[in-house]
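Listing S7. Sequence submitted for prediction.
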Amino acid sequence: MGRVSKAQAQENRQHVVATASRMFREKGTAVSIADLMKASGLTHGAFYKQFASKEDLVDEAIAHAFQNPEPHASAGIEGPAGDHEAARRTMIEQYLSIWHRDHVGEGCPVSGFAADLGREPDQAARSQSIYIGGVRNRAARLATVDDDGLTQLCTMVGALVLARATRGNPLSEELLQAARTVLTKSGAGQYEPQRCAD
């Protein structure tokens, strides 16, 4: 078998990063290199020709997820251009959709990588600046006159994670709907969170 050209090697690398970005959001960063390379259609040994370590790949996969939204998810993540309020509402509706709930690997990296970065402090230290930038960027897209967007993003991510955990039960769709309602009602960003009963 002949040597791979530099262009083909770069294409293979980008394919591995894109595959890892989806698989890590779907299954977590504990996915084995062997499984990842198999899903990429490349050999296990090819990994070490492309990456210094799995941690380096995780960093690149997180950056890729924030910089390259999946085609099916991009409309919801970006929203319509020009009208900020319409874009904000579209982002909320798409983010809190059944499609987004059911397509973890193609979904938002904020929710997709949160658990792994929370569990793995060493990886979090490496990837945190990329992740923080992505969180702040998405919050800024939700910002209103009275709200910097962080509360809205927290509500969206929390509702999505809970909806994924309860998929198959009516509660899952109720969670998505409840968050959509509170975030798209008139004056969103000014609402008062309700206290949970003790």
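Caption to Listing S7: primary sequence and predicted structure tokens for the chain studied. Confidence is low (pLDDT under 50) at residues 72-79, 187-198. Residues 37 and 47 are 7 Å apart (CA to CA).
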